[in-house]
Recover the amino acids of this structure.
């Protein structure tokens, strides 16, 4: 199997445990940065990264086009929201992430690990409660632990058909969801 097929197989196995009423999908656009541009309508640009597998709530519906989202009061547009995402990302809802799983078919090189870790850091500045799992289909090199600083978990699956491996992975994801819920409760308790 290639990486896409492995990701699809894992996604199908994960759908079975989803009793949380959260969405689980692949290639979900997740905001990683936003900027306010002062003009007559105070434009807010939200930039997104597509993420491999995401457990999330819907933030913006996929039917909202780039310049259709607006914040208004009393019929007056206060902020025009621009979702900066490419056309491929427009086929999915923009997600409010609980868990993001970055998958790799084989051990990535140092540069790739550093890049993925930097993406995690950027997304966590907007969604500090979000948990990230770096999942490699195969063996993990020690450099992954050294350079994947911002990942919450670094894991591997050697055999996608091994129920024990899959069940262990799914249990880790369930535990992470509980951590996210607790962090959200703490953030909302102020």
């Amino acid at each position: 199997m290639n990486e896409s097929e492995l990701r699809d197989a894992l996604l199908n196995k994960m759908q079975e445990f989803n009793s949380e009423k959260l969405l689980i999908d692949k290639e979900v656009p997740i905001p990683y940065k936003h900027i306010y541009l002062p003009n007559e309508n105070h434009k807010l640009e939200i930039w997104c990264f597509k993420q491999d597998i995401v457990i999330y709530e819907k933030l913006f519906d996929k039917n909202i086009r780039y310049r259709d989202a607006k914040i208004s009061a009393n019929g007056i547009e206060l902020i025009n929201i621009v979702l900066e995402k490419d056309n491929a990302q427009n086929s999915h809802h923009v997600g409010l992430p609980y868990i993001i799983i970055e998958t790799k078919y084989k051990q990535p090189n140092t540069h790739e690990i550093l890049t993925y870790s930097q993406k995690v850091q950027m997304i966590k500045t907007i969604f500090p409660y979000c948990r990230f799992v770096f999942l490699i289909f195969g063996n993990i090199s020690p450099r992954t632990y050294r350079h994947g600083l911002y990942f919450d978990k670094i894991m591997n699956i050697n055999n996608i058909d091994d129920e024990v491996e899959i069940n262990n992975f799914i249990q880790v994801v369930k535990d992470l969801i509980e951590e996210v819920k607790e962090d959200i409760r703490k953030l909302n308790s102020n």
Notes: The chain has four helices and seven strands. The beta strands are 23-37, 43-60, 69-73, 76-84, 94-104, 131-136, 153-156. The chain has one domain: 3-30+50-60+93-188.
